[in-house]
Design goal:
By secondary structure, the chain is of the alpha/beta class. The protein has helices at residues 31-42, 58-70, 103-123, 162-174, 195-212, 223-230, 246-260, 266-280; strands at 24-29, 46-49, 79-81, 89-91, 126-131, 135-139, 142-144, 156-159, 180-185, 218-221.
Length: 292
């Protein structure tokens, strides 16, 4: 009986951009970048993830990088009260995980994070950028990273053009010759505007990235394709049927390693991961109690 293939395999090549033990890595973008950041941290890489919180669209990511370049601090004019009775203060450039009870607390937290990330950004040499959606929300003509649960009437929204996404992606690479970039499109579907809108959005992101990835110092990792083809079954999704399951994230991580980590360094990476797992599951000591 001939060998049966039960899935469409994505043929991975070796990336032009390689990660090694001495790389300093920044990850920016959607939830998938956070997923990869956790694995990179466990694997012993020197890295920092999403210093403004999770970001989704190319304009917000470009704005975050502009802030990292300049180190320009946030001021009271950046503060905004969250809606829905949250009683918290944040900014339209941050994820709501940065929200605090007062403007002073928010600014202290936001600028402390910015100071650390600005220093790391200046020294890092690898950047992993994950776009989630080509749709942007604007308030008074300015793109926001988060709507902060404020009334929808305050915002307009639109789909970025292919030209705009290509321009933003290409500029990231050209303006930072000291860094190499790996772009990905998040395998998480954004269905708030419907399935057809999500397909169009992801297609625009793919096309926009493809131009930037022509650079010798940039490449594209096919996380979306791996999820849609090799992990097509819903058993590889979380309970919301949108986010990848833990098993799927682990699978994508293994593919990512094969894509951009030299074979000579894989043993060290996996040894670091095993050590990280052991540290989270230490044996019970004399004063510890078993969970009930």
């Amino acid at each position: 009986m001939p060998h049966m293939k039960l899935m469409t395999e994505i043929q991975l090549r070796r990336s032009k951009v390689q990660l090694s033990g001495d790389s300093r890595i920044m990850t920016l973008g959607s939830c998938f970048s956070d997923n990869m950041a956790g694995h990179l941290r466990d694997a012993g890489f020197c890295m920092m993830s999403n210093p403004f919180g999770t970001l989704y669209n190319p304009e917000s990511i470009a704005s975050a990088i502009e802030r990292l370049d300049s180190g320009r601090p946030f001021t009271e004019s950046d503060c905004a009260e969250m809606g829905a009775g949250a009683g918290l203060v944040c900014s339209f450039e941050h994820h709501t995980s940065f929200a605090r009870k007062t403007p002073e607390e928010f600014l202290d937290h936001a600028n402390s994070s910015l100071e650390r990330s600005h220093s790391f950004w200046k020294e890092c040499d690898r950047v992993i950028v994950t776009y989630g959606t080509a749709r942007v929300w604007r308030r008074n003509g300015r793109t926001v990273s988060n709507c902060l649960k404020r009334p929808a009437a305050e915002f307009t929204h639109e789909l970025l053009t292919l030209e705009r996404i290509a321009e933003l992606s290409g500029r990231l690479v050209l303006d930072h010759p000291d860094k190499q970039f790996i772009f990905t499109v998040s395998p998480i579907r954004h269905l708030s505007q419907g399935a057809e809108a999500n397909t169009l959005s992801k297609a625009l992101l793919h096309l926009g990235i493809s131009r930037a990835a022509e650079s010798p110092s940039a490449d594209y990792f096919p996380a979306w394709e791996l999820m849609m083809d090799e992990l097509r079954d819903y058993r590889f999704y979380a309970a919301d049927l949108v986010h990848p399951s833990e098993v799927a994230v682990d699978y994508l991580w293994e593919k990512f390693l094969a894509f951009c980590v030299p074979a000579s360094e894989l043993d060290a990476v996996r040894a670091a991961e095993r050590a990280a797992r052991r540290s989270r599951h230490r044996p019970l000591g004399p004063g510890d109690q078993a969970p009930r």
